[in-house]
Amino acid sequence: MATAAQIGKTSKENGDWLSTACILCALNCGVKVQLSADGRSIARTRGDESHPASKGYLCNKASRLNYYQDRANRLQSPMRRSPDGSYEEVAWETAIREIAAKLTAVRDAHGGESIFYYGGGGQGNHLPGAYASTSIGPLGVKYRSNALAQEKTGEFWVADRMFGGWPHGDFEQAQVVVFLGKNPWQSHGLHRARAAIREIAKDPERTLIVIDPKRTESADLADIHLAVKPARDAWLLAGMAATIVQEGLANEAWLAGHASGVAEVENTLEGIDIADCATKSGIDEAVIRSTARLVAAASSVAVLEDLGVQMNRHSTLVSYLQRLIWTLTGHFGRPGTHYIAKGLGRISDGREGGVSPVAGGRLIAGLVPCNLITSEILTDHPKRYRAMLIESANPVHSLADSAGWRQAMRALECSVVIDVAMTETALEADYVLPATTQFEKAEATFFNFEFPDNYFHLRHPLFTPPDGPLDEAEIHMRLAEAMGAVPEGLEAELSQALADGKRPAFGAMLMSKMAEQPSIAPILPGLLYRTLGPSLPDGLRNSAVLWGLCQRFAAANAEAVAAAGLEPTGDELFNAILEAPSGLVVTRQDWPAVWQRLPGGKVELALPDLLTATAKLNAEQPAEASPEYPFLLSAGERRSFTANTILRNPEWRRKDPQGALFINPEDAARLNLGEGSSARISTQSGSQDVVVAVNDRMQRGHVSLPNGLGVNYPNGDGDQPPIVGAAPNELTWSELRDEYVGTPWHKSVPARVEAI
Ligand code: SF4
Predict the structure, then answer these.
(1) Superfamily for domain range 1-70
(2) Angle, CA 711 vertex, CA 709 and CA 717 arms, to 5°
């Protein structure tokens, strides 16, 4: 139902529109919604013109947001798994007490490094991760991961080593825009994606290049579509980079002042056989060369890479090669090229540090490669993970090797899932703790990479949660209390300080308590929720953790915050965020500031390990498919009605209801498959029965299945109707991964297709 402040004025009839955001992709476009007359569901949506980034734009998916909020069989009580595999409701006190006892027992016997934390946020649900230290800190949890470690860590790692941060393209101003393994028409990735692509396409002064094996909707609008062979992007990009060097197209004057390691890179690229790159990539050598010349001659170029290459062969190397192309030609640090944004979150961290305890996988931003997690559970290694806390994530469905994940979950001594639904992962856990939805508490957008104006959006809740579910912050705090990690009387002391002296006295006491007892630092977020939270405007309690973030951010970025027209103090920044239900600009920067962010003020071009890999490309003989598995499956394609698994009701999809297997017409004819026929797709990992859609956008030998299908959705009686669509990760396996950061090759899974 609507929150107390909104009841009586939010119904469809009286026409009030409330501000929130779409949570179906990382852009989190601003949305205005009208609630139903009973205040229990979202009745209408439209774009929020006041949102600083999306400015009223929405794609087709936002109109289906109510399928997230208004669901059958809402999880309302903690659930405990019984020995027979069924689940029983238990009281919060029981669940918290038992979980705390089990997790501390694992910690005491094997150390906090044996307890794994996964998740912490989805595409719009980011604050749980900010509160998680409240419980995982006292447990001494050392290893964690989330979806970034199966998508972005390769790119972040490369970017961090080259730029000290993650460069983003200035697509609004670029003369040449390149989408690499990216179909923004369906998967977005830049604000107002469809409008932006159309604007580029119709401007005769601008050029749109799409590199994708499939003729996507974005490719339809492109000036140049490079239909690279599936999984062969590395050769195409190496050929382009080599063309730039071998034809003398590098911007040597710019490089001399702005980059280091140039000679090493040029020496390597001088040795690349471009004709061989053409043969292996499937793109004519003349086209490779002409495209490279176009990039070199352009006044500005911006490139956007995404999962089509990041979840594919040579993914980290591809992230490097595409950056070499636009840095060799000087397309960084000026309008229309690439910048490093300054936002409140640091989601694009690419710093390397340490390795995972069993397999020795490289940790980027502290994240264990997702494809290694099950192997670090299903082992008798003394350092294996023995317990797991998972929140706002569904790894059994969304990570490689679902069968392995089910086995791993059952092998744990204790597994706990915090979520709004009995997901595929929850159904394997010992305990499931019900959380409030993203529209029942304050939540925030953290994927903010805009420039020169960078925004932040704290979403106000739309609904009062039902009895039962709790905010993740409260769950973490209760666990911390049950573990004895919260000093007695501390919460009351802080609350009193806030009541007596407002935030200055509160902040001073917090600092003094931290100085006295540094061990309380991890529980600080939970303490803020309990103490500062109740003092915040109605419904915004969950935003309390942002107060601490704002203090640090304003102190470190006072000039940029002031340039945005805000008082550059933590409190004023926090207040401004609370008072802007459609979001606000929090920093304003200029192009010279981008250069200040680079270590030493220069781009580091030479990454020795990746240069060595580049030099070996011509000797490599790609053989992704085989006679037994002749197709390459793109597992998890973004389509007009796909989202992650937070949308579980299959009725949300207006098109492609079964999540069909897309297959080239010639392949379909050869296999005797017609439109709407049934087929079985098999890999070395498993089989799924699918509906066929004959699609001339697909290359021969390349098939695709969408993401987000194959999830359970019990009806109102608790019965489970047949599951709709194929779960992609029933077909993938963990060893199919990048050699540097372990990201999966979901976009080129060897597969066999047969009529059934
Ligand atoms: S682009 Fe579409 S799916 Fe993504 S946030 Fe905006 S409306 Fe939602």
Answers:
(1) ADC-like domains (2.20.25.90)
(2) 135
